[in-house]
Amino acid sequence: MNTPKRIAVISAGLGKPSSTRMLADRLALESADVLRERGVEVETSTHELRDIASDITNNMLTGFPSEKLEAVIADVTGADGLIVVSPVFSASYSGLFKSFFDVLDPASLAGMPVLIGATAGTARHSLVLDHALRPLFSYLRAIVLPTGVFAATDDWGEAGAGGQSALTDRIARAAGELAPLVEASERSSAPRDPFGFDSVLSPVGGFQPN
């Protein structure tokens, strides 16, 4: 029996409900649907950073993750694919979003397929995908998908003549790019050395307090 492929989802929205979480959920659902259409069994897990904000801060101060944060890190770095969505703060990703990736081992996302997404009030913030998110994950040596998905407030109610919105089209295109990379991935089935350089449970992650 084949081991299901795993997609981890990171949502950095601060509110409940959150348009950031809404976009993350739609990206995850569409990606899972595409994989199942290809005959691939898949599991998704979603992590809201607002729920572990204090754990992330404490990790940055002490260099050691809590059990709760450690579990999220293990799930994210051991997945076959990653979906990340951040709200736009001051023309970039949020501080909470960046802090989470600061505490990861810098090598832990190498080769990881990553679908990037962002949300904001107006479309003028859409360049955040290419000016902030893409460089971050390129630095971490992840495989960043060609299509990033940005959703402004107006995108949620917009639909064309056929009832299909531009946002829906972008989500479908991005999911179509992520699916074959997740299908080909062997990350979730590969044995991990808990004491190796690429350990997902490194006690200090990628952040060295001083």
What does this structure look like?
The protein has 210 residues and is α/β, with parallel strands linked by helices. The chain has one domain (5-184): 3-Layer(aba) Sandwich (Rossmann fold). It has six helices and seven strands, in the order E-H-E-H-H-E-E-H-E-H-E-E-H. Strands 1, 2, 3, 4, 5, 6 and 7 form a seven-stranded mixed beta sheet that branches. Strand 3 (81-89) and strand 4 form a beta hairpin. Helix 2 (53-62) crosses helix 4 (95-102). The protein starts with a strand and ends in a 26-residue tail after the last helix. It holds the Pfam family FMN_red.
Assign the CATH class: Alpha Beta
Based on Cα principal axes, name the global outline.
globular
* Level-2 CATH architecture: 3-Layer(aba) Sandwich
What are the segments in which pLDDT stays under 50 over at least 5 consecutive residues?
Answer: 194-204
Q: How many DSSP helices?
A: 6
Instruction: Tell me the domain tally.
Output: 1
- The rounded distance between the terminal residues' Cα atoms is 48 Å
Class from helix and strand fractions: alpha/beta
